[in-house]
């Protein structure tokens, strides 16, 4: 299962790669990283069909996570293939942001600091469902 | 002429003369006692008359009675005049009466003693009498004119005295008014002084309040900025303990994978470095916040403008993001990496930068609100550093926000000038910034702007 992680903090890569070391090694998940909304859209253009799940930060310089979500829902709405799932991650866990994200079509809404155990479970469920 | 008649006429004349004399010399005030006696001037005349009647004087014997009486009256008048001789008209009258009195006395004497001489020198006597009378009248006139002159002088003196009194009264009134006005002015000056002191206190309080308000704007940004590195610290230490677990597991196995062990160890080392890095990042933010809130020491220290600008740009951005979550902007930095450190009070300069960034974000936010989706407007705030002309260092803060018309650009550095709605801005930000840059650092703070397009602030500091 290909997962695209979008965050302006570069260290997120090291974190995810270590957190999901076993899953990556087992070939369950494969992560790709983008450091801005623009970069994410660029990547999606080339690999739209591959990406199953997008994990995106909301607060990023330039294009925000919500804007990215809006564009993804606009551009990749119609199947086939099935549209990617989008999970928003933000430090501001207020209801307003959550509502806005869900309204724009987010599948889930996580707050930082991310509970990786819970995330792992969610990802695994999605993975099983995919297969 | 009968005795009674001539004596009576004399008495009447005397009364008229005395009355005139009283008036002329103002006797009731000058000589009240003699004046009282003069009331009885008729007395001797009447006594003489009665005496003559009683003794049965007749003919020649009574001829001189009225003259005797007149001489007595003249003598009395002379006495009176002598008593008031210090009064000039009185002296003149004295002079006027003297010849006539002498004449009357001699005539009387001659009349009593014998008439021969009188007859012999009749002409001379007549002439003398005429002369004495002319003298008398002339001098009475002179006395009158003297009296008039004196009276005029007296009136003038009185007038002068009155005028002097008036002036004195006016002077007193003026002095009173001056004293009154002085008191009012002193009170006013005192009140003004007090108002000034209060204003100064208020100004100091306002400046501190402005500082605290900017700190308030920072708080959310700071919280966000601290949260991120703290999350990394937590996550990396968490994942590191997992790695250690894996490593221990691997060590228990009979067929140990050396490559995996090396990889795990490398990751561990990297994680520890990251923990240190993010810990320091959080610490530096806290330090910056403390510095910002602390009263300025005013001490200049070598300051890296790139770091300072970057730090405050992020703080300002996240501060605004915390307040308005829908807001988003592209942050653009262009730092001259070879920039030398400048001598600056970093917390003061930080306030200036924070203020400029906050304004920039405000401007792009305003333009974004006005723009429609189709415009594709991308709010952008950029900061750049570079070496300026004449050994200076420049920091430029630019935004593509609403901009300012020419008229506004003149006013923005004035204290209390603000374009923000009441309650949103103190109007002190830019004026304080201007003071910090110019007075505090000997630099310049300039603005360039085009309405509806951009605004750029240029801080120029001596390198």
Automatic annotation (TrEMBL), chain A:
InterPro entries: Bact_response_regulator (IPR050595), CheY-like_superfamily (IPR011006), Sig_transdc_resp-reg_receiver (IPR001789). PROSITE patterns: RESPONSE_REGULATORY. It comes from the Bacteria. The modification 4-aspartylphosphate is found at residue 57. Residues 2-127 form the Response regulatory domain. Transmembrane segments: none annotated. Keywords: Phosphoprotein. It holds the Pfam family Response_reg. One of its GO terms (biological process) is phosphorelay signal transduction system. This is Response regulator receiver domain-containing protein. It comes from Hymenobacter psychrotolerans DSM 18569.
TrEMBL record, chain B:
Keywords: Coiled coil, Kinase, Membrane, Phosphoprotein, Transferase, Transmembrane, Transmembrane helix. Residues 221-463 form the Histidine kinase domain. It catalyses: ATP + protein L-histidine = ADP + protein N-phospho-L-histidine. GO terms for molecular function: phosphorelay sensor kinase activity. Its EC number is 2.7.13.3. It comes from the Bacteria. Gene3D superfamilies: 1.10.287.130, Histidine kinase-like ATPase, C-terminal domain (3.30.565.10). The chain crosses the membrane at residues 6-25, 37-56, 68-85, 92-112, 124-143. InterPro entries: HATPase_C_sf (IPR036890), HATPase_dom (IPR003594), His_kinase_dom (IPR005467), HisK_dim/P_dom (IPR003661), HisK_dim/P_sf (IPR036097), Sig_transdc_His_kin-like_C (IPR004358). It holds the Pfam family HATPase_c. Residues 150-212 form a coiled coil. PANTHER family: SENSOR HISTIDINE KINASE, TWO-COMPONENT SENSOR PPRA. This is histidine kinase. It comes from Hymenobacter psychrotolerans DSM 18569.
């Amino acid at each position: 299962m290909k997962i695209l992680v979008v965050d302006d903090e570069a260290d997120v890569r090291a974190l995810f790669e270590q957190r999901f070391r076993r899953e990556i090694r087992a070939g369950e998940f494969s992560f790709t990283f983008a450091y801005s909304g623009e970069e994410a859209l660029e990547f999606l253009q080339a690999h739209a069909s591959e990406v199953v799940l997008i994990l995106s930060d909301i607060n990023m310089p330039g294009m925000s996570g919500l804007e990215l979500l809006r564009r993804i829902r606009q551009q990749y709405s119609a199947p086939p293939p099935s549209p990617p799932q989008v999970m928003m991650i933000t430090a501001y866990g207020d209801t307003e942001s959550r509502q806005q994200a869900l309204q724009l079509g987010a599948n889930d809404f996580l707050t930082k600091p991310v509970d990786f155990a819970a995330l792992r479970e969610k990802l695994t469920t999605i993975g099983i469902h995919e297969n | 002429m009968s005795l009674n008649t001539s004596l009576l006429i004399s008495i009447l004349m005397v009364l008229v003369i005395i009355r005139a004399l009283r008036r002329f010399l103002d006797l009731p005030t000058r000589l009240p006692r003699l004046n009282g006696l003069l009331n009885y001037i008729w007395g001797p005349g009447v006594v003489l008359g009665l005496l003559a009647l009683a003794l049965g004087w007749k003919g020649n014997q009574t001829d001189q009675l009225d003259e005797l009486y007149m001489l007595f009256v003249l003598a009395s008048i002379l006495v009176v005049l002598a008593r008031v001789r210090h009064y000039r008209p009185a002296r003149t009258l004295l002079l006027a009466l003297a010849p006539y009195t002498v004449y009357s006395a001699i005539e009387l004497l001659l009349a009593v003693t014998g008439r021969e001489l009188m007859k012999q020198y009749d002409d001379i006597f007549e002439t003398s009498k005429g002369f004495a009378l002319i003298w008398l009248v002339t001098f009475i006139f002179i006395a009158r004119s003297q009296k008039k002159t004196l009276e005029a002088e007296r009136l003038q003196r009185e007038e002068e005295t009155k005028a002097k009194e008036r002036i004195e009264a006016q002077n007193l009134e003026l002095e009173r008014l001056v004293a009154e006005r002085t008191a009012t002015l002193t009170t006013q000056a005192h009140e003004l002084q007090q108002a000034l002191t209060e204003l100064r206190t208020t100004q100091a309080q306002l400046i501190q309040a402005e500082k605290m308000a900017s700190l308030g704007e920072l708080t959310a940004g700071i919280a966000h900025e601290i949260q991120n590195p703290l999350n990394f610290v937590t996550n990396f230490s968490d994942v590191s303990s997992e790695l250690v677990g894996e490593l221990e597991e691997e060590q228990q196995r009979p067929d140990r994978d050396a490559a995996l062990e090396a990889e795990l160890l490398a990751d561990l080392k990297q994680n520890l470095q990251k923990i240190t890095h993010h810990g320091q990042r959080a610490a530096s933010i806290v330090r910056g916040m403390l510095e910002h809130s602390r009263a300025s020491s005013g001490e200049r220290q070598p300051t890296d403008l790139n770091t300072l600008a970057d730090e405050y740009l992020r703080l300002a951005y996240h501060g605004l993001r915390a307040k308005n979550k829908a807001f988003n902007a592209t942050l653009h930095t262009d730092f001259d990496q070879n920039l030398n450190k400048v001598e600056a009070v970093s917390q003061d300069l930080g306030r200036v930068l924070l203020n400029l960034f906050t304004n920039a974000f405000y401007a792009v936010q305003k333009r974004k609100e006005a723009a429609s989706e189709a415009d594709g407007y991308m709010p952008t705030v950029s900061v750049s550093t570079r070496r300026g002309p004449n050994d200076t260092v420049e920091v430029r803060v630019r935004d593509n926000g609403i901009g300012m018309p020419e008229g506004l650009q003149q006013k923005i550095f004035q204290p209390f000038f603000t374009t923000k709605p009441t309650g949103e801005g103190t109007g002190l930000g830019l004026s304080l910034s201007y003071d910090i840059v110019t007075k505090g650092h000997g630099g310049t703070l300039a603005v360039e702007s085009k309405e509806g397009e951009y605004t750029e602030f240029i801080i120029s500091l001596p390198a």
